Amino acid sequence: MDKLQAVEERVAHLIRSVDELSEVVARQDAEIRRLSRHLGQLIEREIDREAAEGSIPLADQRPPHW
Fold first, then answer.
1. Quick one: how far is CA 58 from the chain centroid?
2. How far is CA 3 from CA 7, 8, 13, 15, 37, in A?
3. Is 90 exceeded by the pLDDT of residue 51?
4. DSSP at 65
5. Could you tell me if 28 and 21 are in contact, meaning their C-beta atoms sit under 8 angstroms apart?
6. How far is 8 from 18, CA to CA, in rounded Å?
7. DSSP-assigned states of every residue in 7-60
8. How far apart are alpha carbons 43 and 36 in whole angstroms?
9. pTM attached to this predicted model
10. Which helix (H) or strand (E) covers residue 4, if one does?
């Protein structure tokens, strides 16, 4: 019986660890999605700003050493 109890305890610890890791992954997923939306907004804002200035977008400019 002691071996069975030891196995049950280990399984219980593993289940708890998996649940905790799952929560961490879910929080990280939410944060990544939020940051991705924010980055997209910043990129759009910069595109609009460059278009309003009438300049060539920085991403399309040739480096000065060329």
1. 26
2. 6, 9, 15, 18, 51
3. no
4. T
5. no
6. 15
7. HHHHHHHHHHHHHHHHHHHHHHHHHHHHHHHHHHHHHHHHHHHHHHHTPPPGGG
8. 10
9. 0.66
10. helix 2-53
Structure tokens at 25: 């992954």
The two three-digit tokens of residue 36, written as one number = 């991705």
Backbone φ/ψ region at 26: left (φ over 0), alpha (ψ -120 to 50), beta: alpha
pLDDT in tens, 35-47: 999 999 999 998 8
> Is 50 exposed, middle or buried, given 0-12, 13-18 or 19+ CB atoms closer than 10 A?
middle
> Encoding tokens for residue 11?
């399984």
Q: Give me 54's structure tokens.
A: 């009438």
